[in-house]
Amino acid sequence: MIRLKSSPKVAESHYLLLKTRIQTRARNILLGRIGTTGDRPDINPNIEAYLQSLRDDDETLHHLITAPADQLRGIIANYQQHYYVAGSAVNDLRVLYNLFIESVYDKTSHFNKLNFIKDIDLDTCVYCNRSYIYYLSGMADSPIKPEIDHFYPKSIYPYLGLSFYNLIPSCSTCNSPDAKGALDPVDEDLINPYELDSDSQFLFTYKINTIDALRPLSHKYDIQVKLKYKIDGHNEIFKLEKLYEQHSDHVLELIVKSKGRYAEAFRRYLQSYSELKFDDFEIDRLILGNYASIKEVNKRPLAKLYQDIGRELKLIK
């Protein structure tokens, strides 16, 4: 999993784009303008008070939309304590789902997924780093839209449906029912990518079982790709080690490169090349065949694998 860094300025812009629409919709719900009948829904007093606070108190709405990832569970606890009523929970969630999801998140005119991904500046899935999450805009007939996972699922926590740090760019595999889907991170002990302490909480390694010394790139090899460090819940839900077993050929190529002082010779050649100038990270990138800086790990699939194995093999520092 890729560690995401907080983006307060982007989160603030996100809030400003959504503020008026959310408050207008909250007002309309309170006036009974919801659904196709136009009838006022049966809202329990606690939820009515919550909608009024979102409508009238900019600070409350601002905190909901921009709260850092480590405060989202506090928002959930606050909702459970002050607004949750067991007997009306299903209807309450329906009202909140209409407010945040149906009326805003699902409306391209109010929430543009393409722009959201562009503003965060990510190219690969945060959860697996195996797939691109590219998008194409300017195609009114058939735009290619990226996947966005609600880390705290919108079906369970609709009031977090537009919270900036709850919206995680992902690939269709990781966001599918076969992986995370609508699983609750509270139950599965998952960590929001914005809450990772360091980039080394997930660290790849490898084990050579068999390899053909004379023809190492032949198909007669058995190399295990493993996670030296991992978060068990993520490894289980996203099936990371099982999926990365399919990429042992990449590790094989790095192992071959580590033999015969390939990296040292290529580095010296690039450093002495007079017509073009390369910095150390650029040289490392050419040696690996992937981005070598942890700051650029989100730019190409498998970059974290390449960097971890490349350092273990001493191809890069």
Overview of the structural elements:
- The structure is a single chain.
- The chain is mainly alpha-helical and 317 residues long.
- The chain folds into 2 domains: 181 residues, no CATH class; 114 residues, no CATH class.
- It has 13 helices and 4 strands.
- The strands form 2 sheets. Strands 1-2 form a two-stranded antiparallel sheet. It has a two-stranded antiparallel sheet with strand order 3-4.
- The model has no long low-confidence stretch (mean pLDDT 89).
The amount of helix comes to 40-55%
Count of domains? 2
Q: What count of helical segments does DSSP give?
A: 13
Strand content: 5-15%
Multimeric organization: single chain
End-to-end distance, in Å? 21 Å
Please tell me how large the radius of gyration is: 24 Å
The biggest sheet, with number of strands, parallel, antiparallel or mixed sense and barrel status, is:
2 strands, antiparallel
Shape: elongated
Tally of DSSP β-strands: 4
Q: What structural class should be given to the helix and strand makeup? A: mainly alpha
* Low-confidence region ranges: none
Describe the strand arrangement of the main beta sheet, using strand numbers: 1-2
Order of helices and strands: HHHHHHEEHEEHHHHHH
Mean pLDDT: 89
